[in-house]
Predict the structure.
Amino acid sequence: MNPITGDNIPAITPTFRFQWEKAQNCFVVLYPEGMVKLSHSAGEIMKRCDGATSVDGIITDLHKEFPDTDLDVEVYKFLEVAREQGWIRTK
Amino acid sequence: MNKAGSEQSKLPQPLWLLAELTYACPLQCPYCSNPLDFAKYKKELATDDWIRVMREAREMGATQLGFSGGEPLVRTDLEELIAEARQLGFYTNLITSGVGMDEKRIKAFKDAGLDHIQVSFQASSEELNNFIAGTDAFQHKLEMARLVKKYGYPMVLCFVLHRRNEDQIRDILELAITLEADYVELATTQYYGWAYHNREQLIPTREQLLHAEQVAKEYQEKMKGKMRIFYVIPDYFENRPKRCMDGWGHVFLTITPDGTALPCHAARQLPGLEFPNVKNHNIEWIWNDSPDFNKFRGLDWMKEPCRSCPEKEKDLGGCRCQAYMLTGDARNADPVCDKSPHHHELVATIDRVGKLAGTPEFEAKPILFRNPKNSKKITSDKETLPA
């Protein structure tokens, strides 16, 4: 599979569920009989994978909310992992 | 469950709620994990009881909810329970044989918000599948698996492996590929409940296991990224015990059809424990405060050789039920561990079965199928045994 680029549009795979868990105080990914707790930054990235916003758009949006963070590399790294795990799809 | 990038809180949470909705089941699998005396529990929780249980468990942090049984499809309120569970924010798993399901119901479950369906198969061939299941279910299961995919559910296919079907492993995996399973669970029989009673008829040989493991590995490689294959390690053949349920009262909460709360679905058989019932107590008290859920928490209950063992935090001494069944004392080390003074008995059983397997006389010994008639019979036989 090609590496993820700025104009790719990530979306959460329908067979996975992404939601906020109050009891865990974090975002989680749910799948048959399993759960992955996401770190704060991973949760913020996943939250923006809406199937309409491009990776560039996600990064721009994150910069607005976290202006002092250098996050571009982290976004790409996480999205690659998330796609490999099947949590997201890109088009 | 996996966790990434976040700290686990100090008080354990019942992340996994297993709702055994009923002991009724159209199948008769001789390795069923339900208790042998299931027929004596006739009173099932009402819809409202289940809704309260789900709400209370969810407030305690439960995220995964399994609807199981028996056969959960027997419950006519299943659609209602799914809808309620989904509304509470659970990830809802239906663990089923597929018998009692049709397209209308699969669609209704989807509309109610069901997340996932796990369909069990007893074998890859119709003849063996129907023999083990005790009913002609194979063709219907195939049809149901296709419909599960058609409606966009992630699908887990579960195959319980034992001496009679272990050699079908390649066909089993090919069947899973044909049916487009997302996950395949190859679960070597664990010897609790009916499986313990039938274990001589079910224990595979070492050769069979070795072969099955090789084939499973081969397919894990081949199907990487397309289908996840879980090969559950057969603990009887190991030298160290499994970290059973990830710890007593640590992650899992089972509620039986009559409302008894258990730290695992096999625990009901342990003597000296009077597990609490959801009709008398709320989930918070049951999980946090009840004596039985605290009985084997932590490490203080351990005896030797576990107490002084450097690996005790890793495997927590193994399984309490297995320790009880094989040694008579639930506080003993699980005899799967080769540090247990009872380990040699387990090895002897495996060796003996390995030698006798395939001989006509040994294989002719009848399997006891799981049904109400046999349950009643075996329970009354036990009760009339001299002390």
Chain B touches chain A through 27 residues (CB under 8 Å). The longest helix of chain B spans residues 206-222. Chain B has 16 helices and nine strands. The two ends of chain B are 43 Å apart (CA to CA).
